[in-house]
Amino acid sequence: MGTIEMTAGGRSIGKGPGFRKSLMTLAASVMLATSVQAAAPATAEVNTTGLAVTDDSVTVGILHSITGTMAISEIGSVQAEKLAIEQINASGGVLGREIKYVQEDGASDWPTFAEKSRKLLRQDNVAAIFGAWTSASRKAILPVIEQYNGMLYYPTFYEGLEQSPNVVYTGQEATQQILAGIDWAVKEKGAKSFYLLGSDYIWPRTSNKIARKHIDKLGLKVVGEEYYPLGHTQFNSVINKIKLKKPDVIFASVVGGSNVAFYKQMKAAGVDFTDEKPLLLTISVTEDEIRGIGGENVEGIYASMKYFQSLDNPNNREFVTAFKETYGDDMVIGDVTQAAYLGPWLWKAAVEKAGSFDIDKIREVFAGIEFKKAPEGYVRIHENHHLWSKTRIGKAQIDGQYEVVFETEELMEPDPFPEGYQ
Amino acid sequence: MFDGYTSSELMSIFAMQGFAGLSLFSVFVLMALGLAIIFGQMGVINMAHGEFMILGAYTTYLTSGFFQSYLPGLFGGYFFVAIVLAFLICAALGALIEWLMIRHLYHRPLDTLLATWGLSLIMQQAYRSIFGAREVGVELPEWMMGAFQVTDMVELPINGLFVMIIALSIAVGVYLLMYRSGYGKNVRAVVQNRPMAEAVGINSAGIDRATFALGCGIAGIAGAAFTMIGSTGPSSGQAYIVDTFLVVVFGGAQSLIGTIVSAFGISQAQSTMEFFLSGSMAKVLTLLVVVGILMLRPEGLMALKVRR
Amino acid sequence: MKSSSPMKWFTSREGLYYLALAGLLVVILPLALDPFRLNMVGKYLTYAFVAIGLVMCWGKAGILSLGQGVFFGLGGYCMAMFLKLEASTPEATAIQSTPGIPDFMDWNQLTELPWFWEPFHSFSFTLLAVIGVPMLLAFIIGLAMFTRRVGGVYFAIITQAIAAILTILIIGQQGYTGGVNGITDLQTLMGWDIRSDAAKTTLYFVCVGMLFLCLFVARFVQNRKLGRILVAMNAQENRVRFSGYDVAAFKIFVFCLAAAFAGIGGALFTLVVGFMSPSFIGIVASIEMVIFCALGGRLSILGAVYGALLVNAAKSGFSESFPELWPFAMGALFIGVVLAFPNGLAGLYQSYVMPLEERLFKRKPKIEAEPAAEPEATPEARKPAVAATEARDYDPMIEHYSPEKS
Transmembrane ranges (chain B) (predicted)? Predict the structure, then answer.
């Protein structure tokens, strides 16, 4: 890996790269030295590409579905992004400028996502876009954002196999989430056989492919692999198959409404997850989903992700309190919501390091940018635009929260094109 | 795939698989009966059927919340109250919709499709505004969870049994209502010959409204029952619509018995294939077989013999 | 056709309607809108192709298909496959384990191009397939259904099921089809970058040109005896059958025609938007397309174009200003159109604007009697007053689709 593939659209602005670079590092060091309270730098200096930056404000875009079938999942991300923007504004903004946002609705419809991202980039000239949730919506936005050289901060854990110079992936890619989870199940729980189950689309299929390769490498057995159409609500047959095959672990990546049906029917079929026979390890059920499924139906399942609301660290306590103060006490925060919250903060850090809102200058400083106040602990941007992050295993409690039972010691390296797993 | 299993294990698996088929069957019956009444008896295509079901589910959700806060002692029985409420609320809304919208469209059945599609958009967004975009979790009383141990291996889910009982009682109820009551006689008279029915003094407008309300009410009960096995969210209703229509059309639109037969056939085919194939392929194959049979026998399995 | 010369036709009333639409699409919109908005109009226009097909199929012949998205999608996928192959040169895909095949295939461990992708290296084959594949499927469906006299509601629901089947299949076979993401990141058409503003504007005009071509084909069909048989079939199917016509053949024909239009629309959609995904095949998309047609006026091919433009413009407009309210507005629009204006915009135009025009131009009553959509009736059909009032008040839905009759 190492370098970032500059595919179509990564046009370079400016003349002498060397000159620009030295100027930029100079600006960056000045910025760091004088910190934020210094007078805001002149707009002409920090914005050479016509973005929507004025002397006292900068405009960004938020692009999620707030109507349609995906609204269920995406609303948490919108809330987190708005909260981060408010907090940044309260602490003095970015380069002394207040962040304003334009929110657009992707309406769970992929061409709408493409259309709206084009609008954000062409008409509103936004300095960054926080948005997209499903892989399909990201794939729809991608050509647009590469063409107009925008920057997308994408919050969802996803299948990998992508690395665009115009996207920062603040969620985990598949190997980060899966490998540690399976290793844990094998080491801690002595798992020998696995049943892979998912909704029928690219993320579960790719995830299960990686899982299968990893299980093969460990010399263990996959006893079944199964996909159901999105929105499927009848799982009795597969539950019988699972009972027949008696796997040690069900590795589940069922999404959306199917999730609710699957766990309710498992429970009803007499499967008590707290027995861990079989143990259920999921990569798709966050606290958000549990609200719809009901804590009593998932009590005892394990999830492998990078963030749980119950994480016990000062950053997270602060974040959870702020989130609940803003949106109400009954809110829950899932993995993706936290990843969405990282977006504006990472963008702010990059802008301040680059001393400029210009996309090309920001891109050059991405590698190594840290966010120490991240609710998940600490994250750092990898050269491949994904985040170094820890992977954790949580055990679902009846109140809908996860209890963290395991956490990787080191930050996991993101590897969107994993050798040997394709 | 059956190597290494004892015959008793296999027997139990087959028993449970049979049960899975039956519970899918009762789900289909619940979904389709309301639609069969509206579509078969009135010729109205109600695309908002799924949304009426979700209205029933939300009613259950609210009832459970109410019992939890005010009558925790009676929580175990809230579900029965919820079913009755779901029926009443959906039927009332159905009657209102009939009065506002459907009655103007009886002579244009394809247009009811478009209008009710608009209605379904409005209902979905209304749920989203009222209950939020996220799915809500409906808590079940303790006695409805878990399974009923028949032998060591065979476990029958209690809520599956419960759905079956509801489906059965509603099917019997609808049968009695349609074929053994004065109202049913009137409905059938209107279906067969509206002018003649009116001529002998049947209030056909009233019959229409009652029938539409009944269909919507049954959808509400179905929705209430589905909170036990499925999700309750603003757009959950859409997941049911294709299956539901296929069941009704496959059975022969005007025959309630046909609806039940077709629900049985489709559910058994699907659950058997799901056992031997992967989920997606089973679904595709089931739909293909149904479409194929419909092409050979367009009037459905149990059509009324009508002159063409 | 009584119009002897094309020039004369353009000054006729119908000709003026076409000129007005052409003026709007070719002159006014490109001047008034920036390239971004114009591109959006181009996207809306691709739906208009489907709507024109639906006017022929549903409005005229009374066959309601809830699966037009299938044909739109097939046309779109054919084009997308060609563009994807062009984008997947061995150089561009050098980082893959098998260079030279589309990226999603590589992710799914395919090591060579599936056989049905091979022909899509050829542009001429692709152009044929864009029309041919949807028509072939329509022919098979039509042959199976119409010869067995499946009609009305049954046909609608079966087409809906076909849309569901195809969606599940495409999503499930992601190694061959790109799955739920669809076929994305299409860049060039025969070396021509389709993503630049200039290209998008050019594509817009291509869309407009193709649209008029389809409009003229549709108009040609509807003004021939063929078109009148379709309408007659809708009103009194048995009488047409007893007169010796093969009703099924006519139905298959018009269904294939609608499929071909939808296929062209889909291919242009792929070019204009730059990707294709299974969500356009699904039920929701298919029903929306019926709505475009219903709003414009199910009997008027010009109305269908306006319907597609207006519904989509309203959708974009509402969702930009009131994102949480737009489904209410759309729902209300559908209900309103069906309840209050069953003949859509074209019907409104006929009842309210046309009389004004009469007064303005002092036309002769004979021409007044002709509705916009069918102004050029041939002599044998011309019983002016009666025919026209019938056509105007004629509602093809009345009495013909109740299940008791089908």
Answer: 20-40, 52-71, 77-97, 158-178, 212-233, 239-263, 275-296
pLDDT for res C81: 94
User: What is the distance between the alpha carbons of residues A138 and A160, in angstroms, rounded to a whole number?
Assistant: 12
The one-character DSSP state at B139 is P
Q: Which residue in B has a C-alpha nearest to residue C405's C-alpha? A: B308
The answer to whether A17-172+314-388 and A174-305+392-407 have equal CATH topology is yes
Is a pLDDT exceeding 70 seen at residue C364? Answer: no
User: Which domains, ranges and CATH numbers included, belong to chain C?
Assistant: 9-83+130-393 (1.10.3470)
Q: Tell me the average pLDDT across A103-122.
A: 87
| Domain A17-172+314-388, architecture per CATH | 3-Layer(aba) Sandwich (3.40)
Distance CA A132, CA A140 (A): 9
C-facing residues of B in 164-203 (CB < 8 A) are 191-192
Q: Which chain B residue shows the shortest CA-CA distance from A295?
A: B137
Q: Which two tokens stand for residue A299?
A: 């009590």
Let me know: does A300 contact A276? Beta carbons within 8 Å: yes
Cβ–Cβ below 8 Å for B9 and A265: no
Distance between CA B192 and CA C39 in Å, rounded? 53
CA separation (Å) from B66 to B72, B134, B234, C26?
9, 20, 20, 61
Angle of helix C68-87 versus helix C123-146 axis, rounded to 10: 160
How many residues does this entry show for chain B?
A: 308
Nearest Cα of chain C lies from the Cα of A176 at a distance, in angstroms, of: 18
- Nearest CA of chain C to the CA of B43: how many Å? 6
pLDDT score at C388:
40
Q: Which residues contact B136 (CB under 8 A, 6 or more apart)?
A: A291, A292, B58, B61, B232, B233
By CB atoms closer than 10 A (0-12, 13-18, 19+), residue B146 is middle
This model's pTM is above 0.90? no
**ipTM field:** 0.83
Q: Could you tell me if A262 lies within 8 Å of chain B, comparing CB atoms?
A: no
B138: which chain A residues are within 8 Å (Cβ-Cβ)? 294
User: What's the pLDDT at C218?
Assistant: 93
Angle between helix B49-70 and B78-100 (nearest 10): 140
Check if A230 contacts C (Cβ < 8 Å).
yes
Instruction: Name chain C contacts of A11, Cβ cutoff 8 Å.
Output: none
Crossing angle of helices C301-321 and C283-296, in 10° steps, is 120
> Which residue of chain B comes nearest to C290, CA vs CA?
B114
Three-state DSSP state, A201: coil
Q: Where are the domains of chain A?
A: 17-172+314-388, 174-305+392-407
- Note whether A104 contacts C323, CB cutoff 8 Å: yes
Nearest CA in chain A to C285: A109
Interface test with C, best of B38, B295, B301 (most C CBs within 10 A): B295
Quote the minimal CA–CA distance from B18 to chain C in Å.
26
Looking at per-residue confidence, does A21 or C11 come out higher? C11
Best mutation target, B35, B38, B188, B242, to test chain C (most C CBs within 10 A): B242
**Residues of B whose CB is below 8 A from C328:** 121-122, 125-126
Exposure on the CB side of residue C158, measured as CA atoms within 13 A? 27
Determine how β-strand A392-396 pairs with β-strand A302-305: antiparallel
Q: How many helices (H) and strands (E) does chain B have?
A: 12, 2
Low-confidence ranges of chain B (pLDDT < 50): 306-308
Question: CA Rg, chain A, in Å?
Answer: 22
User: CA B253 to CA C74: how far, in whole Å?
Assistant: 31
Which H or E element spans position B232? none
* Residues in contact with C223: Cβ distance below 8 Å, sequence separation at least 6, in sequence order: C1, C374, C376, C377, C378
What superfamily in CATH does domain A174-305+392-407 come from?
Answer: Response regulator (3.40.50.2300)
